[in-house]
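Fold this complex.
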Amino acid sequence: MVVGELADQADLLVIGGGPGGYSAALSAAQLGRSVTLIQRGGSPALGGTCLHVGCIPSKALIEVAARRNSALEAAPFGLTGGPLTLDLAAFQKWQSGMIGTLASGIAGLLRERGITVLDGTARFINPHKVIVEEPDDRVRYIQFTDVIIATGSVPMAVPGIPFDGEIILSSTELLALTDLPRSLVVVGAGYIGIELGTAMAKLGVDVTIVEASERILPSCPAGVVAPVESRLTALGVTVLAHSTLRQAQNGLTVTTPAGERKIPGDLVLAAVGREPCTSDLGLDRAGLTVLPSGHIPVDSSMRASEHIAAIGDVVQGPALAHRASAHAEVAARSLSGIPSVFDSVVPVVVFSDPEIAIVGMTDDEVKGAGISAVTATFSMRASGRSATLGRQEGFVRALASRDDDRMLGVQIVAPHASELASEAALAIEMRTSPLDVALTVHPHPTVSESVSDVAKALMQRASNRANANHPVHKSGRPSSIRSAP
Ligand SMILES: Cc1cc2nc3c(=O)[nH]c(=O)nc-3n(C[C@H](O)[C@H](O)[C@H](O)COP(=O)(O)OP(=O)(O)OC[C@H]3O[C@@H](n4cnc5c(N)ncnc54)[C@H](O)[C@@H]3O)c2cc1C
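Structure:
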């Protein structure tokens, strides 16, 4: 039914209710804008990919798998007992309750801030107007002053091998399983493939990872990957590098450097990337041209044009929920006349085993930028807390600039690296010196101590080379790494 072509009026419209969209709506409302948010029905609903089919369900599965696996590996601590059995259907029931509670929390926040939430799919019909297809074939038109596009992304299929929901699954479908497969082929060793492949292996599934490039996690610096590779081997996961899945005449096969193999699994998880949800948005009618990848080009204030901003997974860069919500704040402010740019450090975290966190600049980036840097690495073998966890593989590596004495980057491969990433991000954002981090008292015994330990190692490396006449802090340490020649 067409309700009529008369348009409703909106001051600031947000399309998409994921972490980018709902954060943008909340920020804009706080800035005094009158906000309407459109979220299409079905899955993912309000809360987006992250809440319904991404961050939250994947971390819940990783947690339950880790608990089962810890019990299996507890004999050295003197703990014995039979393996824990996972009732995946019961887990799904618990999980949907947990996600439902979080989704209600988001809806409640939007309500409290007076944000109008509409259920429908929006498409531009001109730069200031969208049509919204609502349930039951109704449509409405909305005329707006400003708009923030936050429509997120969807899983990409392996070329020539579409998802079928039965054998060839996306991450969304894998996360919704109610029975564990006997074996699983994961195609793509990016962070989603590694996280879900590791969890499945810990739940007793026979996992093979197929990756086209030479190693797992190809977008991470090579140095951080080795402890994760060793752990995958210990968990019995087979990694086939330089290999691809293809549809042959007699079914699915894997092409490896050693030749063709029949797919070694009951199910296939295609985790070869995600593509932005921009193709059905009518962006040409909004006067926007997308990049060949489908991403929307934006300037540093997240604007795609004077009154249109785009945020989150529709913008090129790492597809991460915290990046989407950080974009949201900038977009809401810049469309509300408050000068704002996105130049934040975005920690990249992989919930692998051990976890990886990459914050700020890497060695290659520092070298590429021609920055003179001091580097130091602290091995988790020297961490008392890691010893108590029985997990001493990994390290913390840090880089600091010699010229202006500030932390530039931190890479962590360790238990709870995801939790340590925030301290590293704060140090880099605040332009602190390694001395500030080294002299901040960290509680003992914690894995977090390794961040101050690596900063002390940076100071030590600098002081080893220091000019004897350079100033020295009251602690006896050089007062800055600039003391290095
Ligand atoms: C398995 C998996 C694990 C992940 N784990 C992590 C993690 O640990 N940490 C992390 O930071 N990130 C993680 N991510 C990525 C994270 O989920 C995304 O980066 C994040 O959700 C992007 O937020 P967004 O707001 O840009 O888009 P989305 O969360 O995708 O939200 C977009 C919303 O817009 C709606 N929509 C789309 N088109 C329209 C339209 N035309 N009209 C109305 N509504 C529309 C969609 O239904 C959706 O609800 C993971 C992703 C996956 C798949």
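Residues 467-476 have pLDDT under 50 and may be disordered.
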